[in-house]
Design a protein that fits this description.
It is a single chain. By secondary structure, this protein is an alpha/beta fold. Helix content is 32%, strand content 17%. The chain has 16 helices and 21 strands. The chain has a five-stranded parallel beta sheet, covered by helices on one side. The two termini are 20 Å apart.
């Protein structure tokens, strides 16, 4: 490969994109639209889709409305529900990748094991031992793709079927089975709602109860879909109208709006009281923290399902897992045929465990050390020409990560355009800009419900600080549209 910096040689940059989920698909489409065409995507699995490919458990659905959870460049008029189910989202992602020519650019079943910066290029190494050099690397690995399984004593000895929810077995039949579920997040709630009427018995092993807001689901009929196809402006209005509604309701609540916090608390408590008639179960399901300080669970099926006579909530804790089932800390053995681990994901990994080595042989894993941070969720000092989508400290919560990813890709494109215009060899944020930005974020996040609500959540890093964006998504979009290149090292010499 020509080692002269691409912008100085007047050629296309060779760009590697790690991951073929929703952000990886968007990166290919939007980079091509911007005139950057030398793109290669590396995907560890056999098809596109990311988390929607990995997860296929019963009841799987998205808690962001369909008209917002879609690409701006490929709006879908044919969504069947206000909140789409997982299989439909996966089909949409696959169709989009095929229609926009993304799929042929993907190297499937090819994990990236190491990225090493050797100015002015990145050397990429795959699991097959192949090494290739790229001018720019884009990490589109997402968050929810490394299953987290706690070290439960005796798990390997279980005689039945045990698995993480992201590894749901094909053709699993739960009818008439004694089923246990560990975990009480959104995934668990959806599964309980979908399977409780099929199984012989259901044991929910709960450590922390969740506040649950009703899911206002509805179906879309053929006439409405026809209108969206024939009048595209309606689809655009649905997209931006949904974004406006969420940002000015739930998002405002997480940032401390007392009226919206009060409404959410009331709606969650009313949902619980209305749908769980048994006072003992209702007490078990009542959290002791403020609603919305975790990612709020939107689900209407869980409470009726857990209220069934064949469903039991176990709150005494897990002592160990035995061949016949799970023994709680009270000494009771709960006999099980199937044990489902709804225990979440390693959300602090991002591109890790891929080894990423930047300037001066600095390793990204050591730099983060369990508390990942980035500059505006996209870049890192000391890692030139390396960009992240859905990186640490980006807008999360009950908002569309597709919209967030597209904003970040626009930011990336602006960086590439600046490199081309000025003939730059490399670009990376200044250390002082990175520190100032994250210091400001850490101060602001302490005023949000994620910090003040009194709960533990996967938003918290090892230092107990929420690893989230503490302002509105519209503020983030503005920042992405107008990059401040004074925050960056703009290098004409590849050595810095």
């Amino acid at each position: 490969m020509d080692k002269q910096p691409w912008a100085q040689a007047g050629r296309q940059p060779r760009i590697a994109i790690i991951g073929a989920g929703m952000s990886g698909i968007a990166a290919v489409v939007k980079l091509r639209q911007a005139g950057y065409s030398d793109l290669t995507v590396y995907e560890k699995a056999e098809r596109v889709g990311g988390t929607w490919r990995e997860n296929r458990y019963p009841g799987l659905s998205c808690d962001v409305p369909s008209y917002l959870y879609q690409f701006s460049f490929d709006r879908n008029p044919d969504w069947n529900h206000r909140f789409s189910y997982g299989a439909e989202i996966q089909d949409y992602l696959q169709r989009t990748a095929d229609r926009h020519g993304v799929t042929p650019r993907v190297k499937f079943r090819t994990s990236v094991t190491e990225l090493r910066y050797q100015a002015p290029v990145w050397q990429l190494t795959t699991e097959h031992g192949e090494q290739t050099e790229y001018d720019v690397v884009v990490a589109a690995t997402g968050v929810l793709h490394h299953p987290f399984v706690p070290d439960f004593p005796g798990l390997a000895d279980f005689a039945g079927t045990a698995f993480h929810t992201a590894r749901w077995p094909d053709k699993l039949d739960l009818r008439g089975k004694k089923v246990g579920i560990i975990g009480t997040g959104s995934t668990s709630a959806q599964i309980v709602g979908a399977i409780a009427d099929q199984v012989q018995s259901l044991h929910l092993f709960q450590r922390t109860p969740q506040w649950m807001h009703p899911l206002p689901q509805k179906s879309y009929g053929p006439v409405w879909k026809w209108l969206l196809r024939k009048v595209p402006v309606l689809n655009r209005l649905a997209y931006w109208g949904t974004a406006f509604a969420i940002e000015n309701s739930f998002v405002r609540a997480t940032l401390g709006n007392r009226l919206w916090l009060a409404y959410i608390a009331w709606a969650c408590r009313r949902n619980l009281e209305k749908n769980v008639p048994d006072p003992r179960k209702r007490a078990q399901l009542t959290p002791d923290y403020q609603a919305a300080c975790k990612r709020l669970v939107f689900c209407s099926s869980f409470y009726p399902a857990i209220s069934r006579d064949n469903a039991r909530i176990v709150t005494s804790g897990i002592e160990r897992i035995e061949p016949a089932g799970l023994r709680d800390k009270d000494g009771t053995l709960h006999e099980l045929d199937v044990l489902i681990l709804a225990t979440g994901f390693k959300v602090s990994n991002f591109i890790l465990p891929t080894r990423v080595v930047g300037e001066n042989d600095e390793e990204l894993g050591q730099r983060w050390d369990g508390a990942p941070r980035a500059h505006r969720a996209t870049t890192l000092p000391g890692f030139p020409n390396f960009w992240m989508l859905e990186g640490p400290t980006g807008p999360v919560g009950n908002f569309s990560l597709i919209m967030v990813s597209e904003c970040q890709i626009d930011y990336l494109v602006a960086g590439l355009n600046r490199m081309k215009r000025d003939g730059l060899a490399a670009i990376a944020p200044r250390a002082e800009a990175f520190e100032a930005y994250n210091r400001k974020m850490s101060e602001a996040v302490r005023r949000t419900i994620w910090f003040t609500g009194g709960c533990q959540s996967w938003y918290l890093d090892k230092d107990g600080v929420p690893n989230v964006y503490p302002w509105t998504p519209s503020q983030y979009r503005r920042d992405m549209r107008h990059p401040d290149f004074g925050e960056f090292r703009l290098m004409t010499d590849a050595s810095g």
